[in-house]
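Please, structure for the following, as tokens.
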Amino acid sequence: MKHFPIGPSSLSRLVNCPASLGAAQGVSNDSEYSSEGDLAHAACEKANKSGTGVTLESVGGDLELLRACQTFVGQVSEIRQNKRIVQEWVEATLAHSTIEDFGGTSDYATLYTEGNEVVLHIVDFKAGVGVPVTAKNNLQVRGYASILRDYCVLDPTVYRGTVVQPRSFAVDPIQHAEYAATDIDSLERTIAEIKQNNHFEPGDHCRFCPLAKKQCKALADRIELIRDTALNSTPNEQQVATMLHFHSMATVIRNFLKDCETGLIYAGRTGVAVPGYKVADKKSNRAWLGDEKRQQAIARELADLGVNFNDATESSLKSPRQIENLLKDLQVPKQERDAFLDERTERHVTGQKLVPVTTNDQPSDTSVPFDTQPEQE
């Protein structure tokens, strides 16, 4: 597969840090996550071209990856069944017709008619977990639209993007957005100017840059300056100005730490040891079991613990958290409080987190159901 110096997947970085175009060329960005993404995209390509579906064997026996691929292939099938297809591209590698060095391989794209409109629809598949991607204002999808529109046999009047990211906790698994032709035109002008700009600008986009992980002096200098400023206990006026100037780096640092935690959770879930930590479920606040009638009965049962019925209810039974605080105020022993609430409430798993392992912990089962999956491409 041909790789272009400027590709839709790198636009977020290149638009923000144009000098990384030349500096990062030849620097490998391969990882176990990119290898997993390659495997998933190859399996989906075969399924979308043959119509045979994704097999467990084609994704290396990974059930989570299989489910993600099936979601993407299902989205493609839905478009094929419900739209009047004029053209389509499956893992097609194409160069831009006028911008040198700009091109890429779209996961799936199609041109179809919809009433009086001609729609160019890009469907981008994200097989990973940790970096949530949104369809709105998506530079990568708009980059593919820019490349593909010159290959369309009919001129598009609508540009539509769909991002399929089934394994992310942070975004909806399937998102849709539309873009104006002027958005595509503006992006093309920006891309054409990238090679003329030699400015380095560290920021949130650095986490996608192969150079940042190895030898980016601009990022190293920025971090060094932040560190030196932060270590000064009595910053002067100039240092305050410096801290304000670089305050935006808080985003990249937070995202870096979040990416680390996501990677460690993924490692723990797949059986890789994370020394000193284990993977635990995040849980919601307690919720009462049963319907409103059952909750009224619970309010009456609270009388046995010394709670007045009117204190336990508003228009309905107060929340378990409010009742727990009420029981504390009445000095009901913790063991008795917990026993009462545990029998009458439930807590839903809302995600996963890393928690320190204690000496009393037993080895835990890190397997999780398919619908609680934590990144990347």
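Residues 363-377 have pLDDT under 50 and may be disordered. The first helix runs from residue 11 to 16.
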